[in-house]
């Protein structure tokens, strides 16, 4: 376990040494503050659009950080040939996968924490209320959604040729699931066979990332999501993360690293 | 040749300043361009109308606090902010129709509803202000979408008691759509119900009727509801002012386009009685 944490520590250090997070954070902060500075009909109590824009930027930024950071981990080690001394430590290939995943996940967790802290300050300064429990649920669910995404990208980085293709395909898949995941059954029912059958199967076997999007609850000041449902969703995320990491390990343990 | 970085920087700043001072006047011209109306028109062309519709829908989404059908389960009915601005309130039947979720389809759908807003509510207690940014953007993107002005103004004066802002918004709409009788109707309603300025309300509504009568027959057919609203409101105004004859005339005009002429006839009968009573008590000649 120590080896996994050591590997994870390296990934976290890499994140705060790179500029990605800072650029995205500054961009998010600037756009949110600019949006908040606009006055509509001389009413300074309007806030929900600012929350909406800020949360959208947080989601986009977190996805970019998670996918881009994860996609380059293993290909970069292979390209720089640092994978060989790493595996000679000795560290097993499974530990490399687990360490890389954990590092990326924790790093995005830290980034999310900063983003949500900023969000709470900005909205709290206008609304003068801090519904911490709702913020916690939203951040928690987003973090676990990112666990699935990171595991998916680790899997992709084993099979795809370059980090760019892994990132692009992962973005398309994730945005696709978030956009039409919950409607796929309705779309399937409007299709002729065999497309109807194929889409229905995809609907049931794909990870439902859209469940983890609680932005509406934050933006529209809704009550809390039931805690049992939150726990079940967390377990669901853990299961999917495990599946992707296992598939990644299965691919990586037989992979020829010299080519 | 070696150029000092400081010199290069100074030169770049000078070029940027020169270009900016030159472009400022042109940019001002872009936003006043008659062809594209504003900067959005210049940037997006007619594509901006798509964004405007999207922002108008977003206002409706906010009005429902996120309880809103997606494009996959949309019924094709009017946005509810528009219906509310025309005085419509939901009946229990409407509530059933608007339950677009329906029964759960499967376990994925059932569990997923834990993470979606599933309660049909409308913004109230001043929170209606949250829809305004989207209406403002919709108006900027498509100044010819008159619905944006009428709906925005309605929420501004009726729900948020900002009649000054409502009037300014409607006036802006009128500047962009000078012959629009729908905006004139909303403006008259604002004068009548908010500032109780019946004289201005009458003038604006009468102008609305004139504009309506100038429309081609096809457009008159499409906008007959506006004419109905204009003439009925003018009739009520005249009734309150004691001009019963004029009130009856306006009700008769409204009957030609109204979906329920019978109800209007009842109101005509009531006013007719008032008019008859007035004639009976009129002073008789003494010699």
Quick description:
The complex is a heterodimer of chains A (259) and B (287). Chain A has 259 residues and is mainly α.
What's the arrangement of secondary structure elements?
The complex is a heterodimer of chains A (259) and B (287).
Chain A lengths: L1 H16 L2 H18 L10 H32 L3 H5 L5 H35 L4 H28 L3 H18 L3 H6 L5 H11 L9 H5 L7 H27 L6
Chain B lengths: L4 H27 L7 H6 L3 H16 L16 H6 L6 H6 L9 H6 L19 H10 L4 H14 L3 H14 L4 H14 L3 H16 L3 H6 L1 H18 L2 H12 L5 H20 L7
Helix pairs in contact in B: 3-7, 7-8, 8-9, 8-10, 9-10, 10-11, 10-13, 11-13, 13-14, 14-15
How would you describe this structure to a colleague?
- The complex is a heterodimer of chains A (259) and B (287).
- By secondary structure, chain A is an all-alpha fold.
- In chain A, 78% of the residues lie in helices and 0% in strands.
- Chain A has one domain.
- Chain A is globular, with a radius of gyration of 20 Å.
- The two termini of chain A are 29 Å apart.
- The mean pLDDT of chain A is 89.
- By secondary structure, chain B is an all-alpha fold.
- Chain B has two domains: 38-176, no CATH class; 179-282, Tetratricopeptide repeat domain (Serine Threonine Protein Phosphatase 5, Tetratricopeptide repeat), CATH 1.25.40.
- The longest helix of chain B has 27 residues, at 5-31.
- The mean pLDDT of chain B is 81.
- The chains are: A mainly alpha (259), B mainly alpha (287).
- Chains A and B meet through α8, α10 and α11 of A and α6 and α7 of B.
Task: Please give a handful of descriptors for the protein shown.
heterodimer, A: 259 residues, mainly alpha, B: 287 residues, 2 domains, 67% helix
End-to-end span of chain B in angstroms?
Answer: 117 Å
Mean pLDDT of chain A: 89
Mean pLDDT of chain B: 81
In helices, the fraction of residues of chain A equals over 70%
Give the helix tally of chain B.
15
Overall number of strands of chain B? 0
């Amino acid at each position: 376990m120590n080896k996994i944490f050591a590997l994870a520590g390296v990934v976290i250090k890499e994140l705060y040494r790179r500029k990605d997070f800072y650029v995205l954070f500054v961009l998010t902060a600037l756009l949110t503050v600019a949006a908040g500075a606009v006055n509509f009909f001389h009413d300074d109590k309007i806030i929900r659009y600012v929350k909406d824009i800020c949360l959208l930027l947080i989601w986009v930024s977190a996805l970019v950080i998670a996918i881009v950071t994860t996609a380059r981990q293993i290909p970069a080690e292979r390209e720089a040939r640092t994978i060989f001394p790493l595996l000679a430590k000795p560290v097993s290939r499974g530990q490399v996968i687990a360490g890389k995943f954990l590092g990326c996940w924790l790093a995005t967790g830290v980034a999310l924490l900063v983003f949500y802290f900023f969000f709470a300050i900005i909205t709290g300064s206008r609304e003068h209320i801090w519904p911490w429990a709702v913020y916690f649920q939203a951040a928690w669910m987003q973090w676990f959604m990112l666990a699935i995404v990171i595991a998916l990208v680790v899997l992709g980085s084993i099979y795809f040729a370059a980090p760019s293709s892994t990132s692009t395909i992962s973005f398309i898949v994730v945005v696709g699931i978030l956009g039409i995941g919950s409607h796929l059954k309705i779309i399937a029912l409007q299709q002729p066979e065999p497309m109807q059958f194929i889409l229905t199967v995809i609907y049931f076997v794909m990870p439902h990332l859209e469940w983890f999007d609680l932005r509406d609850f934050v933006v529209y000041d809704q009550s809390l999501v039931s805690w049992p449902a939150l726990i079940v969703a967390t377990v669901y995320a853990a299961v999917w993360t495990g599946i992707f990491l296992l598939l990644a390990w299965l691919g990586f343990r037989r992979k020829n690293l010299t080519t | 040749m070696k150029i000092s970085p400081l010199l290069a920087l100074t030169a770049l700043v000078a070029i940027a300043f020169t270009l900016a001072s030159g472009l400022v006047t042109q940019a001002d011209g872009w936003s006043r361009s008659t062809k594209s109306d504003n900067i959005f028109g210049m940037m997006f062309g007619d594509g901006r109308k798509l964004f405007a519709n999207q922002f108008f829908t977003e206002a409706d989404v906010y009005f429902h606090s996120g309880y809103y059908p997606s494009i996959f389960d949309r019924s094709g009915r009017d946005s509810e902010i528009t219906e509310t601005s025309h005085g419509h309130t939901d009946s229990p039947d409407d509530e059933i129709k608007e339950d677009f979720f329906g029964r759960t389809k499967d376990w994925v759908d059932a569990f997923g509803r834990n993470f979606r807003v599933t309660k049909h509510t409308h913004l109230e207690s001043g929170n209606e202000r949250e829809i305004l940014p989207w209406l403002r953007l919709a108006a900027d993107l498509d100044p010819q979408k008159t619905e944006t002005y009428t709906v925005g103004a309605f929420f501004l004066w009726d729900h948020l008691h900002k009649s000054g802002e409502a009037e300014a918004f409607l006036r802006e709409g009128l500047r962009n759509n000078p012959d629009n009788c729908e905006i004139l109707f909303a403006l008259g309603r604002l004068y009548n119900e908010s500032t109780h300025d019946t004289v201005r309300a009458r003038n604006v509504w009468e102008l609305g009727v004139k504009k309506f009568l100038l429309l081609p027959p096809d457009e008159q057919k499409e906008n007959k509801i506006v004419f109905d609203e204009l003439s009925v409101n003018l009739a009520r105004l005249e009734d309150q002012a004691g001009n019963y004859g004029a009130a009856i005339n306006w009700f008769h005009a409204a009957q030609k386009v109204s979906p329920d002429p019978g109800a209007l006839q009842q109101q005509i009968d009531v006013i007719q009685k008032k008019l008859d009573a007035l004639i009976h008590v009129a002073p008789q000649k003494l010699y």
